[in-house]
């Protein structure tokens, strides 16, 4: 096919709309430039000529996905659902997700769930210290892995026979698994469900948004690091949230500044040459939830699967994190004192 | 076919995001170019393209030619290099002025109307774009094509390897450089990526450990922010070459973000050479000239020589 210089963008609205529809079962992989088997033009586009799926796509009923009400019903017992997003990888989405989980769970009255939708690079089980666990299947559904009495975790990592195995899956297969996670996991009554996502704006994000829309998401916390290379991708993620109608609870700047443990000189390892997270939040008119400095002990806690919150409660990084958690609480209409019970 | 005249195709992979794939790709490209090779960089990270930013060519646009796209030039080959073309490549450590090869880039970032626009694509659309990038870009004759990838082992990776195995000869597809950071969280994702390479039959050329330590500019104390030594242990475990550890250098980010030539405190010696200090700061030059003053350049110079040796057998 001859390349063209026209903007290669599929309108986001189309992608979002199509994701809400039921997928017909296909007999062959989707071709290049497939309009999407769920879309209104399925089976009628230029790309559909000669595709073995054409008749199926064209005749399939374009109704809403019948699984969505099931998901809504399954998640009805969850009070607050928070997404953790970032366009960029390695900025601390999973780290922040675990911190948020631990912080919510520090109040014994709360029950908290963490769902890891990063299928190709799941980090949550290791950070929570439960990477050798497997899932129990009961008659009512899949039972999450419980880290403590009131903190449960679900991740694709639990289903791998060998934990170093690569999950080499294309989009539709990933979407299927995310749907199953939402439909079949028996969370029970939860106060908070924190959903960790992979970097980017693609299949996983569209699916999570689609399937959770009905049951109501409180909003998304967007994570960034201070340098422009990261802000560039995060801007795209914010654009995505806007178009998808996901409320943004606020922006967190992670890895901002590093204090040398020897001479206490503060260095900006990831320099905020363009104003960092604060400026981005102001430009985009979204709340700025706080800045968390780099602390080698955070990474170490994650590697050993321990709670940084419990072990280094007095460090500046932990104080900054608590402030962020309080702000998150405020933005979802919860009294911050109820979240952090101890102070 | 657009890959026809490319001698070697090398992938830069990592299971984890934000470990420095694009930063390593950039430095490998600059170093290869400084060693006199002509280099192309293809960015297949469709939802978060960083390569235009790293080469400071964000405002550039791709031009269309009959039957394809013309990649964006970062710099053309210098005169000395052209004269040397086909002969021995100049040893770049002699510190003398020497030629550098041409450097071109291709990224989805160049095609977007607005740099903040989200690219919301599902798998099949991404596959189509990756294929188009591999078949419709007029690279011309290149010594090396470096392919920067998004994190994970999904659509982009499957399509990329599938297409390369079909369109490139086994001699062209030299293999993959794996990037990791030292901490266990990153290593566990990167192991998956090495298993991916094994499964699809792409040779692992070596592992680079990035963000290994940060030297405080004030007291020269080295802090291991993201732990240390993990990359080497992993390389041994999987029996793949370990190319080296790259520390965090704020001067490199300064070079990328602000385009300013790096300088170091008096007494900073890398590879037996005193690094440039603030006092003898030269007027700003091009990115590739400024990169020679960066403390990471000698490191990459060594690693790239090793890589070239491995690739050429």
SSE order and pairing:
The complex is a heterodimer of chains A (343) and B (313).
Chain A: H1 12-19, H2 54-59, H3 67-74, E1 78-85, H4 93-105, E2 112-116, H5 124-127, E3 136-138, E4 141-143, E5 145-148, E6 151-154, H6 171-184, E7 190-196, H7 203-213, E8 219-224, H8 228-244, E9 248-253, E10 258-259, E11 266-267, H9 276-284, E12 288-291, H10 296-304, H11 308-311, H12 316-331, H13 336-339
Parallel strand pairs in A: 1-7, 1-8, 2-6, 2-7, 8-9, 9-12
Antiparallel strand pairs in A: 3-4, 5-6, 10-11
Chain B: E1 6-13, H1 21-34, E2 39-43, H2 51-54, E3 63-65, E4 68-70, E5 72-75, H3 79-84, E6 103-107, H4 123-135, E7 142-148, H5 155-167, E8 173-180, H6 184-200, E9 204-209, E10 214-215, E11 222-223, H7 230-238, E12 242-245, H8 250-258, E13 269-270, E14 273-274, H9 287-291, H10 296-311
Parallel strand pairs in B: 1-7, 1-8, 2-6, 2-7, 8-9, 9-12
Antiparallel strand pairs in B: 3-4, 5-6, 10-11, 13-14
Describe this structure in words.
The complex is a heterodimer of chains A (343) and B (313). Chain A has 343 residues and is an alpha/beta fold. Chain A has two domains: 32-63, no CATH class; 68-338, Rossmann fold, CATH 3.40.50.300. In chain A, 36% of the residues lie in helices and 16% in strands. Chain A has an eight-stranded mixed sheet, sandwiched between helices. The longest helix of chain A has 17 residues, at 228-244. Residues 1-10 of chain A have low confidence and may be disordered. Chain B is of the alpha/beta class. Chain B has one domain: Rossmann fold, CATH 3.40.50.300. In chain B, the strands form four sheets. Chain B has an eight-stranded mixed sheet, with helices on both faces. Residues 85-97 of chain B have low confidence and may be disordered. Chain A: InterPro entries: Mrp-like_CS, Mrp/NBP35_ATP-bd, NUBP1/Nbp35, P-loop_NTPase, YlxH/NBP35. Chain A: Its main location: cytoplasm. Chain A: Residues 26-46 are annotated as: Disordered. Chain A: ATP binds at residues 87-94. Chain A: Belongs to the Mrp/NBP35 ATP-binding proteins family. NUBP1/NBP35 subfamily.
């Amino acid at each position: 096919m001859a390349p063209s210089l026209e903007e290669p963008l599929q309108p986001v609205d189309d992608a979002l709309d199509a994701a809400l529809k039921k997928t017909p079962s296909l007999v062959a992989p989707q071709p290049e430039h497939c309009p999407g088997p769920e879309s209104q033009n399925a089976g009628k586009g230029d790309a559909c000529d000669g595709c073995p799926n054409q008749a199926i796509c064209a005749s399939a009923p374009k109704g809403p996905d019948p699984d969505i009400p099931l998901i809504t019903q399954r998640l009805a017992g969850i009070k607050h659902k928070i997404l953790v997003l970032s366009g960029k990888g390695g900025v601390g989405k999973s780290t922040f997700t675990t911190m948020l989980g631990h912080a919510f769970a520090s109040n014994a009255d709360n029950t908290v769930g963490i769902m890891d939708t990063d299928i190709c690079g799941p980090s949550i089980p290791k950070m929570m210290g439960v990477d050798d666990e497997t899932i129990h299947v009961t008659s009512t559904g899949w039972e999450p892995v419980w880290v403590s009495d009131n903190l449960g975790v679900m991740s694709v990592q639990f289903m791998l026979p060998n934990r170093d195995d690569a999950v080499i899956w294309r989009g539709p297969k990933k979407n299927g698994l995310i749907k199953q996670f939402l439909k079949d996991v028996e969370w029970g009554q939860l106060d908070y469900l924190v959903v960790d996502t992979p970097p980017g704006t693609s299949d996983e994000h569209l699916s999570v948004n689609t399937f959770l829309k009905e049951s109501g998401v409180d909003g998304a916390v967007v994570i960034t690091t201070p340098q422009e290379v990261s802000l560039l991708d995060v801007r795209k993620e914010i654009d995505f949230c806007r178009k998808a109608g996901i409320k943004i609870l606020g922006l967190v700047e992670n890895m901002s500044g590093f204090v040398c443990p020897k001479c206490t000189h503060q260095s900006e390892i990831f320099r905020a040459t363009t104003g960092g997270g604060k400026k981005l939040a102001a430009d985009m008119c979204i709340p700025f939830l706080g800045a968390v400095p780099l602390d080698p002990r955070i990474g170490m806690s994650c590697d050993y699967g321990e709670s940084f919150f419990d072990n280094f409660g007095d460090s500046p990084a932990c104080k900054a994190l608590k402030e962020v958690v309080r702000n998150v609480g405020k933005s979802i209409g919860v009294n911050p004192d109820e979240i952090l019970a101890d102070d | 076919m657009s890959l026809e005249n490319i001698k070697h195709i090398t992938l830069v992979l990592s299971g984890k995001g934000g470990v420095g794939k694009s930063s390593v790709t950039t430095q490998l490209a600059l170093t290869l170019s400084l060693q006199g090779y002509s280099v192309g960089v293809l960015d297949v990270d469709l939802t978060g393209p960083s390569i235009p930013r790293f080469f400071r060519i964000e405002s550039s646009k791709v031009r269309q030619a009959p039957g394809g796209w013309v990649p964006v030039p970062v710099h053309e080959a210098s005169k000395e290099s052209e004269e040397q073309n086909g002969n021995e490549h100049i040893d770049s450590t002699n510190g003398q002025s020497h030629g550098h090869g041409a450097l071109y880039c291709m990224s989805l970032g160049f095609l977007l109307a607005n740099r903040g626009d989200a690219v919301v694509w599902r798998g099949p659309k991404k596959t189509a774009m990756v294929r188009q990038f591999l078949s419709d870009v007029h690279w011309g004759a290149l010594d090396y094509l470096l392919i920067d990838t998004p994190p994970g082992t999904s659509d982009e990776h499957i399509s990329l390897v599938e297409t390369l195995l079909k369109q490139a000869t086994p001699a062209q597809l030299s293999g993959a450089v794996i990037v990791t950071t030292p901490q266990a969280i990153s290593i566990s994702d990167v192991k998956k990526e090495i298993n991916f390479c094994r499964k699809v039959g792409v040779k692992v050329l070596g592992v680079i450990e990035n963000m290994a330590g940060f030297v405080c500019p004030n007291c020269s104390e080295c802090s291991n922010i993201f732990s240390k030594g993990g990359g080497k242990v992993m390389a041994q475990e999987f029996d793949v070459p370990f190319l080296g550890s790259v520390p965090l250098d704020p001067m490199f980010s300064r070079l990328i973000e602000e385009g300013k030539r790096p300088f170091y405190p008096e007494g900073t010696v890398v590879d037996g050479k005193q690094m440039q200090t603030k006092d003898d700061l030269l007027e700003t030059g091009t990115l590739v000239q400024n990169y020679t003053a960066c403390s990471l350049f000698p490191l990459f110079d060594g690693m790239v020589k090793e890589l070239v040796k491995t690739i050429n057998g």
